[in-house]
Amino acid sequence: MGSGMSSLRRSAASEIMGSGVSILRQRLRRFVSEYNLVKGMMPLLGLQVVFEYGRPGSDRPPVTAALLATNVLIFFRPGPLHRILPRTCDIAFNYQLFVKFMLFENFFLSPFYHGSEAHLFCNMTSLLWTGVMLERSMGSVQFASMVATLLGLSQGIAVLLSQCFSLLGDSTAYYDHHCIGFSGVLYGMITVLTGQSNYIVWLQGIDTLAKYAVWADMFITQALCANVSFLGHLGGILAGQVYLWLKHLFKGRDPLTLLISVCAGIVTSQVRFALKLLRSVLRQGYITGRGMVVYHSSARECPQGLWRCSTCTNYNSLATDICEMCSTMRKDCAFLLGQHHQAWCNGELSVEEIHCRRLDRLDR
């Protein structure tokens, strides 16, 4: 009897909690719709950008500004961009469909699309705050590399999580789940920013460590907003953790920059090896049926163990005193063999004579 009453109490408490969360969501949506808070947020974002970038004496991070401009332009699609850019419904990222069809366009472009003006405003406000701090501390090049790494890691980890969760239950829900927005990358950036911080922050009335605040923010956002992508946010946080681990593993060096440098080094070493091999082949020459053809930078240089004919400039072995190409005798041996070889050593044979001697040699 007591166990039955306790189970009833637990079920009633869970129903009350669930109804409380749903009521809170309904009140929040009603408040937003009544006061029309989702409209006209772009001027507020513009004021924040002006206050951040318009202060005298402060540096202006270019990568953060470029990311802001890219997201805003893709959302409003002014002028020819409306015809060039794909539609939001075509670019929305679905984890299971990506695994099945390898939709890399959706993989890389979906973070830059947003569903509403409020969605864009919240993400860009967070990007302005987080991006400026990170870019000023890391530098523009390393910050851009970090953003690219977090984008790929967050999307990839979300795909892996969807595969793992689909094995535990019904995978049909993941076929209907499409996500867009820059929030996954933003959660990764906040994780990198607060990953090694031990100071206390205040979050929705709760005092917590800064490195745990991003987890609390994810669960609070999931509780208040029903249409957010839990896997996308979780993938962003895990991507930030992986980035910090890789950076610690590589002793502070940026993982993407290190990967690019390693790949460039491998390609460069292979090209150098091929060029070295080609130079060695050209330096040694190759042997034909009529003698050895050798390449040298200087025409007067004679390879060791060979002598060059003064008539046709063919290289011949020292074992023979007669040129294999034109049958001209070697100069330093002409006087030793007698006067009947003198005509061969003067080096003034005509073209017809050389041609006839070649034909005679081939007939033999």
From TrEMBL:
Q: Name one GO biological process term.
A: proteolysis
Q: Does the keyword Cytoplasm apply?
A: no
GO cellular component annotations, sorted alphabetically? membrane
Stretches assigned to the RanBP2-type domain:
303-332
Q: Does the keyword Protease apply?
A: yes
Q: Which PROSITE patterns match?
A: ZF_RANBP2_1, ZF_RANBP2_2
Listed InterPro entries = Peptidase_S54_rhomboid_dom (IPR022764), Rhomboid-like_sf (IPR035952), Znf_RanBP2 (IPR001876), Znf_RanBP2_sf (IPR036443)
- Family, as annotated: Belongs to the peptidase S54 family.
This protein's name:
RanBP2-type domain-containing protein
Upper lineage ranks? Eukaryota, Viridiplantae, Streptophyta, Embryophyta, Tracheophyta
